[in-house]
Amino acid sequence: METVALVLGAIDVTHLVVTLVIGGVIGWVASIVMKTNAQMGIVGNIVVGIGGALLGGWLAPMLGIAAAGTMGSWLIALGGAVLLIIGLRFLGVLR
Description:
This protein is mainly α. It has three helices and two strands. A hairpin with a 2-residue loop joins strand 1 and strand 2. It is globular and about 35 Å long. It starts with a strand and ends in a 5-residue tail after the last helix.
């Protein structure tokens, strides 16, 4: 299988594609929840989804929240993506 060299090492291409697809779905759902879907394209959804997953994964343990399985991880990612959109609205990037 091919690998792509990144700054942090090598990553499997299949893993990268799955990460982008799931990030896009999480970002898309968050944009629907926050009513910013018309302002964000597919790239925006992917960025918000992946960034939200990172934010949620960082904040959840600090708040004493643990993910129970895949669905729990997705809900934490969705919560992080919603918080990211709130932050982008506060900064004036989104309306």
